[in-house]
Structure formats: structure tokens, C-alpha cells
């Protein structure tokens, strides 16, 4: 069915998701929206080897709904590739990224749409996660639940740009903005989960792009989803692998943080010279601090290739935005 008008696209990225899809899709088909709003579902099959695509289509047909389902395939493994493909296939004004094990509360889409409509300064919106599982949660889970996108992302609703990221689960963006970021040259160095490879930080990387182009991140406690966590993920061994994935992403994410701080004019201490050299100048040559700062500010900054690429993409994005305005 061709959509004449689409307000919201829900992008569900899947890898071997057949066993998890039924309740996820049930929560999506039961969304409560104002009559004038329309939404669609784009399911991205990210190189699955099970019956994900066919089962999803069968489940959706069984609901006897007029809501459109489009199944697209992304052969390159990795959540970041699946998200990009889903965004490219979307027709809605806003995109909600829903993992294959996220159960969105019935008002999720309406709340997300209303908020993004009324807050153009916000680039990425996130909500509150609640845990669900068929087994009892281990004693350590409440302490480490944030590793599973469970809990709150702030004490209350508000701007969380200083946090630097929003969970990918239930993440909300505008279609034209994320496509503009991709088209400007922003590309993921963090691929995200690839089957048993638990590389992380791909959602945080997207958030960094928005911060670099001057958009904010926001947490809305009224946006609630349930994260269904399978039993094998609730082991100490799995959690250790999960945190290894987080650690591996730090180098790439810190590069973005460097740029964000630079753009805020919060220039890092000893940006141009090492701390030992600075101490030597101050102690031995008695260089006045004011003169030293003047020297640092006048010295051209030489960035390595990844930083230059990010700054170039930022420039292209901002120039394109200016032309639109």
C-alpha cells in the first residue's frame, strides 16, 4: 500500500529476530494516535539467516491492519548500517528507532511526534526503559541495568546534551536531519552489534553528530518502552562482553568529544604543547601566562584525518541548512 502522507516511521532493525518479533510488533500495531496522524513500519533485515522477513510479514498480515509494513534488506552486518538503510527507506517526518526487543508503550509515537514538532532545537529524543524477561533478574542487574538501556536517562525530563548520548532503544530523530547528516558525509566508524560481536557506541556516535552541528539531546520520562532481555544476556559473562564493547568505542567517541569541546571554545589544556614543555617554559624561561596563551591562540591547529573529515561534514551540513532556510 502506497502512503500519501506519513508522519512517523518506526524503523525496526533485525538480525535473526524471528523468536522476538511477535510482542514487538503487537506493541507497534496497538499504538494510539490522533486520527489525523499516520505512521508506517520499516523492518530492516540485517543479513538474517532465519525467517525474520517472512515471519514479520505474516505476523503483520495477521493483525489485519491498514498500517503499512515495508521490509528492506541490508546485507552488511552491523546496526549502524541497518539504521542508515532504515532511515533511507523511511517516509515519515520523524523516525523512531525501535530494536527488535523493544516494546513501546501505546502512547510512545504520539508523545514523540508532539514533542519533536514543538521542539525544533532538539535533535535526538530518548525515553525511559523498563526491563522484561521470562526469568528472574539476577541480583546484580539493578546496578548494571543501564548497560541494557534500562532505567532513566536523567533525574527528570530535560536537556541531556552534557551526557553526550541517548540510548538507541526508542531513539527519535527527524528524517530530514539524519539524512542531511549522512549526505553531508557523516559516517559511522562504530558499526554496532553484528551477531555475537557486541561492538557498541553506534547510537552514541549518531548523537555526537547532532551535538557537533548544534542540536541538543533530550530525555522525556513520558516516553516509556519495555526492553525484553533474553536469559542468555543476563549472565555475568555476557555483561562483561557488553562492557568490553563499550570500552572499545571510547577512542572513537572521545574524538567527537574533543571536537565538541573545541567548538564550545573549551580548548583542552596543553592543546598545542605538552604539559612538560609548558612547565619548562614557565619555570625556566619565565614566560608570562598571557603571552603563552596568545601564542597558543595564534598557532594554527593541525588536525589528523578523521577530525578533518568530521569538521568538513559539519561545514557541509551547516551550509546546506543555510540554503534551506
UniProtKB/TrEMBL annotation:
A molecular function (GO) term: hexosyltransferase activity
Limits of the Glycosyltransferase 2-like domain: 9-127
Keyword Protein biosynthesis among record annotations: no
InterPro entries for the chain: Glyco_trans_2-like, Nucleotide-diphossugar_trans
Top-level lineage group: Bacteria
Keywords, in A-Z order: Transferase
Region forming the signal peptide: none
Record's protein name: Glycosyltransferase involved in cell wall bisynthesis
Lineage: Bacteria, Pseudomonadati, Bacteroidota, Flavobacteriia, Flavobacteriales
Amino acid at each position: 500500500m502506497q502512503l500519501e502522507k506519513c508522519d512517523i516511521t518506526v524503523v525496526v532493525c533485525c538480525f535473526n529476530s524471528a523468536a522476538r518479533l511477535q510482542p514487538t510488533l503487537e506493541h507497534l500495531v496497538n499504538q494510539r494516535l490522533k486520527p489525523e496522524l499516520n505512521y508506517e513500519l520499516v523492518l530492516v533485515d540485517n543479513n538474517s539467516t532465519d525467517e525474520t522477513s517472512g515471519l514479520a510479514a505474516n505476523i503483520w498480515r495477521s493483525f489485519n491492519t491498514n498500517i503499512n509494513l515495508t521490509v528492506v534488506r541490508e546485507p552488511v552486518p552491523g546496526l549502524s548500517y541497518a539504521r542508515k538503510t532504515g532511515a533511507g527507506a523511511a517516509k515519515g517526518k520523524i523516525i523512531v528507532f525501535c530494536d527488535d526487543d523493544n516494546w513501546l508503550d501505546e502512547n510512545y509515537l504520539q508523545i514523540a511526534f508532539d514533542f519533536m514538532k514543538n521542539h525544533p532545537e532538539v535533535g535526538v529524543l530518548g525515553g525511559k526503559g523498563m526491563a522484561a524477561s521470562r526469568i528472574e533478574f539476577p541480583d546484580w542487574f539493578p546496578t548494571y541495568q543501564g548497560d541494557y538501556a534500562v532505567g532513566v536517562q536523567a533525574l527528570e525530563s530535560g536537556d541531556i546534551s552534557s551526557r553526550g548520548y541517548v540510548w538507541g532503544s526508542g531513539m527519535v530523530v527527524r528524517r530530514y536531519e539524519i539524512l542531511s547528516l549522512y549526505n553531508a558525509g557523516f559516517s559511522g566508524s562504530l558499526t554496532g552489534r553484528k551477531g555475537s560481536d557486541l561492538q557498541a557506541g553506534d547510537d552514541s556516535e549518531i548523537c555526537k553528530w547532532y551535538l557537533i552541528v548544534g542540536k541538543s539531546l533530550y530525555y522525556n520520562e513520558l516516553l516509556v518502552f519495555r526492553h525484553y532481555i533474553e536469559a542468555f544476556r543476563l549472565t555475568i559473562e555476557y555483561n562483561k562482553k557488553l562492557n568490553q564493547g563499550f570500552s572499545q568505542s571510547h577512542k572513537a567517541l572521545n574524538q567527537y568529544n574533543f571536537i565538541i569541546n573545541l567548538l564550545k571554545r573549551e580548548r583542552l589544556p596543553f592543546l598545542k604543547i605538552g604539559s612538560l614543555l609548558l612547565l619548562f617554559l614557565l619555570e625556566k624561561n619565565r614566560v608570562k601566562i598571557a603571552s603563552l596563551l596568545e601564542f597558543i591562540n595564534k598557532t594554527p591547529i593541525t588536525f589528523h584525518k578523521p577530525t578533518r573529515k568530521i569538521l568538513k561534514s559539519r561545514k557541509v551540513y551547516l551550509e546546506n541548512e543555510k540554503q534551506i532556510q
